[in-house]
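Before we proceed, please read the two lines closing this message. Report back on whether the structure tokens fit the sequence:
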Amino acid sequence: METRNVAFLGLGVMGYPMAGHLARAGHRVTVYNRSADKSSRWVGEYSGKSAPTPAAAAKDADLVMMCVGNDNDVRAVIFGADGALAAMRKGATLVDHTTASAEIAREIHAAAAAKGVGFLDAPVSGGQAGAENGKLTIMVGGDAATFEGAAPVLGHYGRAVTLMGGPGSGQLTKMFNQICIAGLVQALAEGIAFAEKAGLDVERGLEVISKGAAQSWQMENRGKTMIANKFDFGFAVDWMRKDLGLCMSEARARGATLPVTALVDQFYARVQAEGGGRFDSSSLIRLLRDRS
């Protein structure tokens, strides 16, 4: 593959290893992070350099990737004099891996197009482990030609990279994903809690039912840690609530109903209220167990 000049903006638990995969693949990577010490640590670990602002990182890049927190963070990194878009050259491509609203994806697509810059909204699924292992699922919205140019680079950390439609389609697909996950996690929590009350060997039970129709990624990857009451890792409840808020807002705008999602969101609010905002999203089971 042709070596590219790539900028990566945002070195959280997802962005840090994602940028690392690009460097290991031989691309010339410049990173930016709000806290400069993390940028310095990344440069010390990988072959690349850091920049003091998003604009400085994006200045000579063929592709600018970003993975930050929410819509406000996206705007802060992209727009303004120090934002990435101000410095990007015509013909370059901006890829946003943040889970954000479809509305901001369409807003950025229009602003980028006015500058002759391609844009893809490309949220990911697979969690920190998927980012570290280069096995993320990437759901993409944008123009086909822009996608074709960026897809080989996205493949360095994505095992499945799929164009879902026009601008905003990636974010809408991620909402689809999160709606399904919310119901699955609650169902798994209820099933495990029931098995515990029934006096079953729960781990053996999971082994059995995971070979049948109940099988899911959540069961395979979170079942044992839920049994062990371990939640100090993974995808935080705070972020799950942010994502479910996006889902319900979009659903209201489109006339869709999400009764189970709305209920599970309330359960996550209870976990937050009890100090579990940074627990993994599988911590829903805590609400179903007897606690002294």
